[in-house]
Write a structure and sequence with these properties.
With 600 residues, the chain is an alpha+beta fold. It has 19 helices and 21 strands. 35% of the residues lie in helices and 19% in strands. It has an eight-stranded antiparallel sheet, with no helix packed on it. It has a five-stranded antiparallel sheet with strand order 3-4-5-7-8, with no helix packed on it. A four-stranded antiparallel sheet has the order 9-15-20-19, with no helix packed on it.
């Protein structure tokens, strides 16, 4: 059995020529400073006040520092870097738990708010650490043996106790997908276990068999269109992890790669979600402007293997991005040493004119293929039990020059509440903070039965549109609500039309529009100056419909780093109506003198 698919530090022809100046500069700044230290009191906060990041941030910072040191050591073979790596490895081996406290089931099983070291939980965090240690063992094994004899034995001991044993002995892990609910944890953890097994285990065949069995559950769950209901951000730690695991299986064990439609098509998912620049359609828990520290080389490699030129071009459009430790050490090592990736010429993203993903009922349309200028539309159907679900059936995004103007806010910083019974108390998860109606004061409910129906898509050169029935998402007897959204290229306009039949009530019905940018009033509508200098748009609605604005000040960096200081919700009171529409068109004119939002 082969080990990991990258050259070791003994291969000086490769590593002495690696360009890692930025990483080495950050590593130099680490020297002589205290290592980040996640504390017990920080771990316990998950149970006390729901805070996750107090522990997760220093734990991640420790691993990032170690990854930087590994690259510096591999490039230079300087003993100060070998010592830095040994220090980081020993700290990880002495860390009581590799599991993120928010994931650990020790409170339910043992009544403990801290990890139970005799009953370790195998989660994403434990997988990430064991995979990092496996890559360190692979890249610097010779140097570790020379400088710190015994440290590699310690790595193997901890891998056995914390990962291999629990993986084999406890088969009730929720992420295995035995109940049919398969999500990104499955390939993420399986790929980490596989990485560790081929490098650190003396007889990994049984573990590899279990990995293949688990991965198969994920692979067969991929829809034929390759879409990921968790959204773009989770593709990188879901489908991408599966693709990387299949590469490793083929390299290390000679197992053939399965030929599945969903596996071939999912390579296209990232560029099919691309709005323009660094903006993406951010359905579910993703950010509209996600981190650029992504393993683009992994997408490029998968696209090359599958033969998807557009996906390869999208990856190559990020060829000039600085290598980053934040996506994981294994990905970083491969990025720095993959000759095909290093030789790839930067290119433009393909920006397809139309994308229709039937499995998730998502339509994306822009005015012209390959061009960000102009209007764009994204609208979704689906249901309210998707992975990382928001209550957003029928919600839509409108872009100007690839920049979202009518937006999906995304998600705030994760806390204990995010994945518990209080999830929908979080405002970003609620339909009232998506571009959906609030009907008779009722918002959408979570659950698979709360879904779109009678979905019809039409894509022509002149118009791309989606029409769907939303009434089933609200749990109101006797309600029908038909929504149609269209990008009309002939006249350069997006139109969203609603017609409904609702039970009689004196409770209000409103159409909600979540807007990013500066809002000012115009006749029968508003003018919005978007972020990033994109062309302003005018949003209009029928005369006589009253509007109100609610400003949401953003104090969470997960949101403010994307949208700035605020989002504005425009609320259109349609209580006295049974139909309404809005139109969005670009406005290149000089800003008018209407009242600004701040004057309201």
């Amino acid at each position: 059995m082969n080990t990991l698919p990258a050259p070791t530090a003994d291969d000086r022809a490769t590593w002495s020529h690696v360009d890692a100046a930025d990483l080495r500069a950050r590593a130099e700044a680490d020297l002589g400073t205290p290592w980040p230290q996640p504390l017990a009191s920080q771990a316990a906060r998950v149970h006390r006040d729901g805070d996750r990041v107090a522990w997760e941030n220093p734990a991640s910072a420790r691993q990032h520092r170690l990854s930087r040191a590994v690259i510096a050591a591999a490039v230079t073979l300087d003993v100060q870097w070998i010592d830095e790596v040994v220090d980081g490895v020993q700290l990880l081996c002495e860390q009581s738990s590799w599991c993120w406290p928010a994931h650990d089931d020790t409170f339910d099983r043992h009544g403990s708010v801290l990890a139970t070291v005799t009953d370790p939980f195998l989660d994403l965090g434990a997988g990430e650490v064991v995979a990092q240690l496996a890559w360190i063992d692979h890249v610097l094994g010779t140097q570790l043996d020379a400088r710190a004899p015994g440290i590699r034995s310690r790595i193997r001991h901890e891998a056995q106790v914390r990962v291999f044993g629990p993986f084999v002995e406890r088969r009730d892990w929720h992420w295995l997908g035995l109940d049919g609910d398969v999500h990104n944890w499955n390939p993420w953890i399986h790929s980490s276990v596989l990485t560790a097994a081929v490098q650190l285990h003396d007889d990994p065949d049984h573990i590899v068999d279990l990995v293949v069995e688990g991965l198969d559950r994920y692979l067969v769950s991929l829809p034929d269109d390759g879409a990921i209901d968790e959204g773009y951000s989770y593709w990188w730690n879901g489908a991408c992890r599966a693709l990387e695991a299949l590469d490793l299986l083929e390299y290390a064990t000679d197992r053939p790669r399965p030929d599945l439609a969903g596996l071939r098509e999912t390579v296209a998912f990232p560029h099919r979600c691309h709005l323009g620049g660094d903006w993406y359609a951010n359905l579910a828990d993703g950010q509209a402007r996600p981190s650029a520290d992504l393993p683009w080389h992994a997408l490029h490699r998968a696209a090359r293997r599958i033969g998807d030129a557009d996906a390869a071009a999208h990856a190559a459009s990020h060829r000039d991005a600085a290598p980053s430790e934040f996506a994981g050490l294994g990905r970083l090592v491969q990025e720095l040493t993959d000759a095909d990736w290093l030789a790839a010429a930067p290119s433009g993203s393909p920006l397809p004119r139309d994308v229709w993903l039937p499995s998730t009922q998502v339509l994306l349309a822009r005015e012209q293929a390959g061009v960000v200028e102009g209007l764009g539309l994204v609208i979704k159907g689906g249901h309210n039990a998707e992975h990382h679900n928001h209550n957003d059936v029928g919600s839509f995004i409108v872009t100007s020059d690839g920049v979202p103007v009518i937006v999906d806010a995304g998600r705030p910083t994760y806390t204990k509440a995010t994945f518990g019974p209080d999830r929908y108390s979080i405002w970003t998860m609620q339909s009232a903070w998506h571009n959906t109606p609030t009907i008779l004061s009722v918002d959408q409910s979570p659950g698979q039965e709360f879904a779109a129906s009678d979905v019809e898509v039409s894509v022509t050169d002149a118009v791309s549109s989606l029409s769907l029935e939303l009434g089933g998402a609200y749990g109101l007897d006797g309600l029908t609500w038909r929504r149609s959204a269209a990008l009309d290229r002939a006249v350069g306009i997006v139109r969203v039309s609603d017609e409904w039949d609702a039970p009689s009530s004196d409770r209000p019905t409103t159409l909600n529009l979540i807007v990013a940018g500066t809002v000012s009033s115009v006749d029968d509508g508003v003018r919005v100056t978007p972020l990033d200098g994109a062309t302003p748009v005018v949003i209009r609605w029928p005369a006589g419909i009253r509007s109100a604005h609610t400003v949401r000040v953003l104090d969470d960096p997960m949101l403010s780093e994307v949208w700035g200081e605020r989002l504005t919700r425009i609320e259109l009171d349609v209580s006295a109506h049974d139909r309404a529409w809005i139109t969005i068109e670009r406005d290149d004119a000089t800003p008018g003198t209407g009242d600004s939002e701040d004057d309201r």
